[in-house]
Amino acid sequence: MAQEVKGVIARGKGQPVELTTVVVPDPGPGEAVVKIQACGVCHTDLHYREGGINDEFPFLLGHEAAGVVESVGAGVTDLAPGDFVVLNWRAVCGSCRACRRGKPWYCFSTFNAAQPMTLQDGTKLSPALGIGAFAEKTLVHSGQCTKVDPAARAAAVGLLGCGVMAGVGAAINTGGVARGDSVAVIGCGGVGDGAIAGARIVGASKIIAVDTDPRKLEWAKGFGATHTINAREGDVVEAIQELTDGFGADVVIDAVGRPETWKQAFYARDLAGTVVLVGVPTPDMKLEMPLIDFFSRGGSLKSSWYGDCLPTRDFPMLVDLYRQGRFDLDAFVSEEIALEGVEAAFEKMHHGDVLRSVVVF
Ligand SMILES: NC(=O)c1ccc[n+]([C@@H]2O[C@H](COP(=O)([O-])OP(=O)(O)OC[C@H]3O[C@@H](n4cnc5c(N)ncnc54)[C@H](O)[C@@H]3O)[C@@H](O)[C@H]2O)c1
Ligand SMILES: [Zn+2]
Ligand SMILES: [Zn+2]
Q1: At what angle do helices 236-243 and 259-267 cross, to 10 degrees?
Q2: Ligand 1 atom nearest 260 alpha carbon
Q3: Which residues contact 230 (CB under 8 A, 6 or more apart)?
Q4: 162 Cβ partners below 8 Å, 6+ apart?
Q5: E strands of the chain, at which residues?
Q6: Residue ranges with CB less than 5 Å from ion ligand 3
Q7: Residue 165 in 3-state DSSP?
Q8: Is the CB of 64 inside a 6 Å radius of any atom of ligand 1?
Q9: pLDDT on residue 65
Q10: Rounded to 5 degrees, what are φ and ψ at 218?
Q11: Atom number in ligand 1 closest to CA 307
């Protein structure tokens, strides 16, 4: 029996989101229905609403979520009703060319639920990142559910489902930050602060936070930044070099994703250092640089999709560190709101007033 639940949808480009009734089918083979306990409001939800991702409206928004499995479909053996899970958008397939070569964090064929969720009139919904968790319940592929310690706070651990994991992973998976490294992070939103927290976890010795907003720099210190640079107050590259004996940082992470921030990352890095692009540029952005600089500075230039995470490996590990007081996930939660508050949360995000607003059910 399909169920009717409340959910937040975006009907059309730029239109305010709407609270409506969503029809959630019973789970089919390989699927699970999850009762959502908490779901963070991410920049990507706003991108969907603005038509910046694709135009497959209406979208069922929300994708940084934790909840409890309500029911599972045929053939699901590793998940049972009652399991506490964080939802992910990388349910690895195990058989695509990336998976076969032992690099499943690049999986090119991730799983989502096969059946659609719909409006009452039968209109199919496109769930954000294949999740759609601004809803009392959602239907996902069972591989999108990662079991974690049920004693953890849902509003905090749900954030591992997207932005915070992307940031942590940009530092520790993609960037390979290691004990003693110097790291600079440009852009200290949820993603950048995740990168700062990740760099601290693995023992980076110097962690330099760069932002244009002094409030963000204050918060960044709480996550582990040892130095801060206000990008409006001078040359970012020189400031990073000054803090690193004139050489530049071993790893620089661009968590903004603009040509000017990427260039800063490129030149603020030591010879043979690493640049990680985790912020997402828009299709119109272009870069023009002397090719010789790429050669003569060496090193590695990488992009980070979802922090190159493997949910089954990384979520439980990070939840353990959180439970032990070694990773302050709570500090990412600026406020808890109701489903009705998503539109207002977009506004606060736009003004930089919050790291994350989290819908709590
Ligand atoms: N790669 C991935 O898998 C992945 C996953 C989630 C989000 N993202 C992307 O990461 C980016 C950051 O996301 P977020 O949630 O942290 O966003 P956010 O808006 O919360 O944070 C961006 C931060 O950058 C700062 N900033 C803006 N321009 C700057 C500049 N020129 N120099 C320095 N700082 C500047 C802002 O003040 C803000 O603090 C977005 O582009 C988002 O789409 C990527
Ligand atoms: Zn695969
Ligand atoms: Zn997100």
Answers
A1: 30
A2: 31
A3: 211, 212, 214, 217
A4: 40, 42, 44, 63, 64, 89, 129, 306
A5: 3-10, 18-24, 31-40, 59-60, 64-72, 84-87, 118-119, 126-127, 137-141, 145-147, 182-186, 206-211, 227-230, 249-254, 269-277, 300-303, 333-337, 356-360
A6: 42, 44, 162-163
A7: helix
A8: no
A9: 98
A10: -60, -45
A11: 3
Minimal-distance CA residue to ligand 1 atom 21: 189
Strand order in the sheet with 3-10: 118-119, 18-24, 3-10, 59-60, 126-127
Q: Which ligand is nearest to the CA of 174?
A: 1
Cα 336 to ligand 1 centre (Å):
21
Q: Is residue 167 in contact with ligand 1, taking CB distance under 6 Å?
A: no
Contact assessment for residue 358 and residue 335, using Cβ atoms and an 8 Å cutoff? yes
CA of 120 relative to ligand 2 center, distance in Å: 34
The ligand placed nearest to the CA atom of residue 211 is 1
Please name the residue whose Cα sits nearest to atom 8 of ligand 1: 279
**73 phi and psi, to 5 degrees?**
-90, -175
Nearest CA to ligand 1 atom 19: 189
Return per-residue pLDDT of the chain as tens, 361 residues: 899 999 999 999 989 999 999 999 999 999 999 999 999 999 899 999 998 889 999 999 999 999 999 999 999 999 999 999 999 999 999 999 999 999 999 999 999 999 999 999 999 999 999 999 999 999 999 999 999 999 999 999 999 999 999 999 999 999 999 999 999 999 999 999 999 999 999 999 999 999 999 999 999 999 999 999 999 999 999 999 999 999 999 999 999 999 999 999 999 999 999 999 999 998 899 999 999 999 999 999 999 999 999 999 999 999 999 999 999 999 999 999 999 999 999 999 999 999 999 999 9
